[in-house]
Design brief:
The protein is of the alpha/beta class and 388 residues long. The chain has 16 helices and nine strands. The chain has a nine-stranded mixed beta sheet, sandwiched between helices. Helix 4 packs across helix 16 and helix 8 (240-247) crosses helix 13 (303-311). The protein is globular and about 55 Å long. It starts with 6 loop residues before the first strand and ends in a 5-residue tail after the last helix.
Length: 388
């Protein structure tokens, strides 16, 4: 790479956890002081004490070194993108003409969440699918999230700025054109890829998180009004976390960074509440998905910087592209237990020219971890017409 280039060399990377840090985590977990709450509740007021105690006991026994070894079996790279080190998993497809795709996670997940989908996309024949649908899969960790570095400028956390970095990352990895799929924060990043880099982005595949508010003065249909009313009700009941993280993230983050019990209580409640409603979160998603995710946040001490994505949500040029500013093919996948439910297609068409609309039979906000076969099948179908 030429001197002064904004993109540094691609370097192989691995994950290591120091035994001293693991010992300290277990000491903190064993010394947890439980919150006093005089009501018997499991989830109604947040993560119940009995539920949290079970999660912490399981975390105490979690084999962190074995977890790192399993992750290190997946090729990873570090790339310096305009002064910010980004970690990315990079799975080669099983065919030489595999289609490059970039999958972006959200909060409070990490690069772990898309891995089950990624393996199905990279090696479809292993899962009974057509090898002709193979992808070269790139899963970058969002800036300031576990495994990637934290930018020093607030505006480097916006979805639009991250999209610019993702285009640089794909260039560094040798991909001139690519597809993109994501939910949550990643859906907004992916929408910006379609808006700002249409010459590079073949098409985008999004969850409902890519949808903004109703356009000013729009005359809504009854189904649109009903969905927006339901989304407002969801925000009132379950959206308090977002208001705190947008307004006073650091006050919250001090406690989460210092207490693994606090971190677990805050994150596990989101995984349970935003999924298909499983009471036993570890059984539903798998212990490694939840405990591995907690471990990544803890050992990288990245919970505070991950919250900045909320603090800069409305910074210019905005959380999402302006309506109809995305010119590449747009597909949507909608899960029934997604936050706020499934919107009417007509509402999405106020924002994008929608070419494909899939209402999945199962799954929620973390559908990639919850129903990886369904999501992988839909990604294959969405991008199949764009191959070649």
């Amino acid at each position: 790479m030429a001197e002064g280039s904004p993109v540094g060399p691609v370097r192989p990377a691995t994950i290591r956890f120091a035994q001293a840090d693991i010992n300290e985590l277990r000491d903190r977990l064993s010394a947890t002081r439980s919150a006093q709450f005089p009501f018997s509740t499991r989830w109604q007021h947040g993560t119940g004490s009995e539920i949290l105690r079970d999660v912490l006991d399981r975390w105490m026994e979690f084999d962190v070194h074995a977890f790192a070894t399993r992750l290190n079996a997946i090729p990873q790279v570090d790339v310096e993108l305009e002064g910010v080190r980004i970690r990315a998993f990079h799975l080669a497809g099983e065919t030489t003409d595999a289609l490059p795709v970039i999958l972006t996670h959200g909060w409070p997940s990490s690069v772990l969440e898309p891995l089950a989908v990624a393996s199905r996309l990279a090696r479809p024949s292993t899962y009974g699918a057509d090898p002709a649908d193979s992808f070269h899969v790139v899963i970058p960790a969002l800036p300031g999230f576990p495994l990637s570095a934290a930018p020093s400028a607030l505006d480097d956390y916006t979805a639009a700025r991250t999209a610019d970095r993702w285009a640089q990352l794909m260039t560094a990895l040798g991909y001139s054109r690519f597809a993109a799929s994501a939910g949550d924060i990643g859906a907004r990043v992916t929408a910006w890829l379609g808006a700002r880099h249409p010459d590079r982005t073949l098409g985008i595949h999004l969850s409902s998180n890519a949808l903004g508010p109703a356009p000013s003065g729009a005359k809504l249909s009854a189904s649109e009004a009903a969905w927006l009313h339901g989304r407002t009700a969801w925000d009132r009941e379950d959206g308090g976390y977002a208001h705190v993280q947008q307004t006073k993230p650091l006050s919250l983050a001090h406690g989460l960074a210092d207490s693994p019990a606090g971190l677990a209580a805050w994150i596990v409640e989101k995984w349970r509440g935003w999924s298909a409603g499983a009471d036993d979160v570890l059984a539903h998603f798998g212990a490694e998905e939840i405990l591995g995710n907690l471990s990544l946040y803890w050992f990288t001490n990245s919970i505070a910087t991950s919250l900045i994505a909320y603090a800069v949500h409305d910074h210019p040029p905005g959380a999402r592209p302006a309506p109809h500013s995305v010119g590449v093919p747009v597909s949507f996948y909608l899960a029934p237990a997604e936050n706020g439910g499934i919107p009417p297609r007509e509402f999405a068409e106020r924002h994008y020219k929608v070419e494909r609309w899939t209402e999945l039979p199962r799954g929620g906000h973390f559908v990639g971890a919850e129903e990886p076969d369904l999501l992988a099948d839909d990604i294959r179908a969405a991008f199949r017409p764009l191959r070649g």
